[in-house]
Design a protein that fits this description.
The protein is mainly α and 294 residues long. It contains eleven helices and six strands. It has a domain of 151 residues: MetI-like (MetI-like fold), CATH 1.10.3720.10. The strands form three sheets. The protein has a two-stranded antiparallel sheet with strand order 1-2. A two-stranded antiparallel ribbon has the order 3-4. Helix 9 packs parallel to helix 10 and helix 9 packs antiparallel against helix 11.
Length: 294
């Protein structure tokens, strides 16, 4: 027991045990192929295979691995526009998320500062923000398609490189992801001790120097909490955006496999989305802790 605690094996063994329990539960409820032999109307023996189980169409972990092995063992392969390795799809989704997330931070952070610094700005815009904040990405995307319907950039071959669906996807990710940044930045600005601002006045710092020397450093922990939450939402939104726009990516692949009744690949996409989301959250947590301790 002492050895386990010393090397912190609990942090590894307990999650592994939880994964095994979930895997066992998955196997128990999944359907199993049962092959029986019977005699048809012509007197011939034929084998009939059908799936049975609590959820007959749900593949077992083994069936999921067998069906998905090609996408995992060749993660960057490109066999077609919608038939690529799982990490290649993931990379496409991450690029789109990064672009939308960047826009969310660029727009959301200043709005958060305005909300934190100005009571009149808060009185004017806070009700509007509270109305817009819970709107689903499924509702924002059609509006984005309308707003950016005239956008179309083509290359020398006449192929569209950036169109209305691309702009609408970025718009949807940005507007859904920016609210945690807005709210946490505003809370951070309001939490700045008045003594800090009094010292800035005594030192006769300009407004810009007060912003960069006092407000931003004091608000940074709150801002990073918002950045972390915004990144999680941006990654959640990507699935809906790719499903509705038909863009290649892990969300688009999921929707394509759903239409093809390929349930094993749907599970592969869900696991990939979950693992990538976890990794992104851990990375942001590390960055956040570095800034908080700096």
């Amino acid at each position: 027991m002492h050895l386990i605690q010393r090397f912190k094996l609990e942090s590894i063994l307990l999650p592994v045990a939880a994964i095994l329990v979930c895997g066992l539960f998955w196997y128990l409820i999944a359907g199993k192929s049962i092959t029986t032999e019977k005699v048809d109307e012509f007197g011939d023996k034929v084998k009939v295979t059908k799936r049975e189980g609590l959820s007959a169409d749900l593949p077992t972990p083994g069936e999921t691995w067998t069906a998905s092995r090609l996408y995992i063992t060749e993660p960057f392969a490109k066999r077609g526009e919608l038939d690529q390795g799982i990490l290649r799809f993931t990379w496409m989704s991450l690029v789109l998320v990064a672009e939308g997330y960047f826009i969310a931070l660029v727009i959301g952070t200043p709005i958060g500062f305005f909300l934190g610094l100005s009571k009149k700005f808060t009185q004017a815009f806070d009700p509007l923000i509270q109305v817009l904040r819970p709107v689903s990405p499924l509702a924002w995307l059609p509006l984005g398609m309308i707003l950016f319907s005239g956008i179309k950039f083509v290359n020398s071959d006449g192929r569209t490189t950036f169109g209305a669906s691309d702009a609408a996807a970025l718009f949807t990710i940005a507007i859904c992801a920016m609210w945690p940044t807005v709210m946490n930045t505003a809370v951070g600005v309001r939490a700045v001790p008045q003594d800090y601002l009094n010292v800035a006045k005594v030192l006769k710092l300009s407004k810009s120097r007060t912003l960069w020397k006092v407000l931003v450093p004091a608000t940074l922990p709150y801002m990073f909490t918002g950045f972390r939450l915004s990144l999680g939402i941006a990654w959640l939104v990507i699935v809906a955006v790719e499903m509705l726009t038909g863009r290649p990516g892990v969300g688009g692949f999921l929707w394509q496999q759903y239409n093809a009744n390929s349930y094993a690949h749907i599970i592969l996409c869900i696991l990939t989305i979950g693992v990538v989301g976890y990794v992104l959250d851990r990375l942001m947590s590390v960055v956040e802790s570095r800034f908080k301790t700096a």
